[in-house]
Amino acid sequence: MHPTVESVTRRIIERSSQSRRRYLDFIDRERGNGLNRERLSCSNLAHGFAAAEGDKATIRGGRAFNIGIVTAFNDMLSAHQPYGRYPEQMKIWAREAGATAQVAGGVPAMCDGVTQGQSSMELSLFSRDTIALATAVGLSHAMFEGVAMLGICDKIVPGLLIGALRFGHLPAILVPAGPMPSGLPNKEKQRIRQLAAEGKVGQDALLEAESQSYHSPGTCTFYGTANSNQMMMEVMGLHMPGSAFVNPGTKLRQELSRAAVHRLARIGWDGEDYRPLGRCIDEKAIVNAAVGLLATGGSTNHAIHIPAIARAAGIIIDWEDLDRLSSAVPLIANVYPAGQGDVNHFHQAGGMAFTTATLLEAGLLHRDILTVAGRDLGDYAAEAALEDDQLVWHAAPAESRDSTILRPVSSPFHTDGGMRLVAGNLGRGIVKTSAVDPARLSIEAPCRVFEDQHAVNDAFKAGELDRDVIVVVRFQGPRANGMPELHKLTPPLGVLQDKGFKVALVTDGRMSGASGKVPAAIHLTPEAHGGGPLARVRDGDVIRMCAVKGIVELLVSEQELEKRTPVEMQHEQCGAGRELFALFRDRCDAAEQGASPTLAAAGL
């Protein structure tokens, strides 16, 4: 193993020793003494198989492994629309393997693309905890010996895992549906968006460009949180190998899903190859997720989600761990918004098979993890294919098929992973450096303070930001308003930067996979709400941000800061269902701990 990866892993294992032991004891107790079909009364059991139709006799007789399907299907969200037919197909595939399957429950699937810039985006992060709760409700019926999770997008995969980890004695597999085919080239989409931000094209042209970009069933093709999720599931060994980026509606996609059901039936708790989820997700698997994220330039949202997933399994990882890993893990992928190729181009270049192979060869991924598929992570350095309609796997290509998108560890795009911890008298935050010109990673400038992203756009249109400026957007943290993504800021700040100004963003909010060419210190903790340092910042204060040295600081004396009264939040938290999430906001912990009200309230 690479010495930095080894030392960070050891640090996490040592820090997590007690909490991880408690978790493993918990899932062992749940398997031995918790709810299961054998403990259900006749009335309980009759309710559980009443509608099972062709599988009723099998379930009633207790003769087969029963798979609980937790689905995020809806037909508004393109990524999850393909899941509509999956349960019926999976029931057939389960019978082929001598098992049965039932839909345990549905979970919400919220689309940040639809809610961007809207008040409903303030529900987005907490939809993850809602999904975790819904997953737990579905599995609480004790009818199942394994779990098939149908989910792809931003908060959905982390939410499914957090919920399923409370039933970590059950084996579980994530079943993706794949990205939509490529649409409008990303360079052209970016050009139209920037022209729209400058007022040079109208809404009709902008809508047409967006419609050509997001055009059919499947995940959005840019490398944001959804596709970062799929990458992480591969390097954690929770997919069938090669599943991440195969398009929907293809024979290969169907055969990978079929194989997932067959495999799940073989790793059940009464077989010879028992692989419970709670033991598959261990400290090494969590480090693999972080390494994969850094090596591919994935979404900064996972600086929140990885700690939350880990915590649900009794594992403690923090931003210092990510920062240390980032210093050692090279950036080997250049996928939009960092580059111009999308995830389909990444997949064609060698995708997850090549990525896994080169990272394993360099000792940057832990090979010896318990995967759902077979021996170890080496099985994932392979591409799935069909030969005579049969699913087979071939070894990863020896070389990238497109070095503008994907490279080996020996010849990376950058020598570090592009996600750095910054800290100072404004708190602790994350900067995604992989898409930023190195000359722009350090900036010192007067700030302009805002309390929502729409006000930034208004100031931009009025020409008030045409200067060197650090834009501060505060009261965007999890306890303030649920930590919405601030994607509306990318086009105007990009325009200012293109005009030659030095520009940066400092916020306690999120930017996610859309973090682009403008340097941004995000997830600032402690957040402004409740008196965090950002609440004491004033227009015109000079801020220094340096992602190279890991600094974000307000150049105001400590005495002056102490004199200032923290500004209080003025946001209204009513409408679009936001009032229903008041308890979540009130109980939520800090972004570095995973920003989870559910885990905080449970004492995990």
Question: How would you describe the overall organization of this protein?
Answer:
The structure is a single chain. With 604 residues, the chain is α/β, with parallel strands linked by helices. It has two domains: 3-181 and 216-395, no CATH class; 419-571, IlvD/EDD C-terminal domain-like (Glucose Oxidase, domain 1). It is 38% helix and 13% strand. It is built from 24 helices and 14 strands. Strands 7-8-12-11-10-9-13-14 form an eight-stranded mixed β-sheet. A four-stranded parallel β-sheet has the order 2-1-3-4, with helices on both faces. Strand 5 (382-387) and strand 6 (390-395) form a beta hairpin. Helix 1 crosses helix 14 (283-296), helix 9 packs antiparallel against helix 10 and helix 11 (225-235) crosses helix 14. The radius of gyration is 24 Å and the shape is globular. The model has no long low-confidence stretch (mean pLDDT 94).
What are the defining features of this structure?
604 residues; alpha/beta; Glucose Oxidase, domain 1; 2 domains; eight-stranded mixed sheet; four-stranded parallel sheet; 24 helices; globular
Q: What is the CA-CA span between the terminal residues?
A: 30 Å
Radius of gyration, in angstroms, nearest whole number? 24 Å
Strand content: 5-15%
Low-confidence stretches: none
Shape: globular
Task: List the SSEs and their pairings.
Blueprint: H1 3-15, H2 17-33, H3 42-49, H4 56-61, E1 66-71, H5 86-96, E2 100-106, H6 112-115, H7 124-139, E3 146-150, H8 156-165, E4 172-174, H9 186-197, H10 203-213, H11 225-235, H12 251-266, H13 277-280, H14 283-296, H15 302-312, H16 319-328, H17 343-349, H18 351-361, E5 382-387, E6 390-395, E7 419-424, E8 427-432, E9 442-450, H19 453-461, E10 469-473, H20 478-481, H21 490-498, E11 503-507, E12 520-525, E13 542-546, E14 551-554, H22 558-563, H23 582-587, H24 597-601
Parallel strand pairs: 1-2, 1-3, 3-4, 9-10, 10-11, 11-12
Antiparallel strand pairs: 5-6, 7-8, 8-12, 9-13, 13-14
